[in-house]
Amino acid sequence: MNDEFTASRSILVGFLNSYLPDYYGEKVKEANKRYADYVEKDEDLNNEIKSNKEKIEKLQQENAELSKEIEENQKEIKEFKENLIRTEEECKHIKTQLNMIKR
To answer: Between the CA atoms of 25, 27, 33 and 38, what dihedral angle is there, to the nearest 10 degrees?
Structure first.
């Protein structure tokens, strides 16, 4: 009985010595691969955030320039409207004088 136990134990230990290192070796390889994938994904996400921030900064600069252009256009519109009003008043005045001359 003792010999059977020793033989069974020997078989079991031999099996475990050959099976477990391969099994856990594969688990370690898989874990390292997943770890590398997460690190790569993290880098990609950080690069994407950096790129988005650069785009945002560019768009903010563009908006600032457009706001400045709008401000300039509004000044031009105001000046044009003032000139238009003066021209209309002059035209009315001239028409009034012409009507008075005709009488």
So the answer is: -140
- Distance of CA 24 to CAs 30, 31, 70, 82, Å? 10, 10, 67, 85
pLDDT in tens, 22-77: 888 899 999 999 999 999 999 999 999 999 999 999 999 999 999 999 999 999 99
Amino acid code (one letter) for 73 = N
What's the longest Cα–Cα distance across the chain?
Answer: 145
| DSSP-assigned letter for residue 83 | H
Predicted TM-score (pTM) of the model is 0.58
Q: Measured between alpha carbons, how far is 96 from 84 in angstroms, rounded to an integer?
A: 18
- Residues 44 and 40: their CA atoms lie apart, in Å, by 6
Q: Which of 98, 80, 78 is nearest to 88 (CA)?
A: 80
**What does each C-alpha distance from 14 to 18, 20, 70 come to in angstroms?**
6, 10, 83
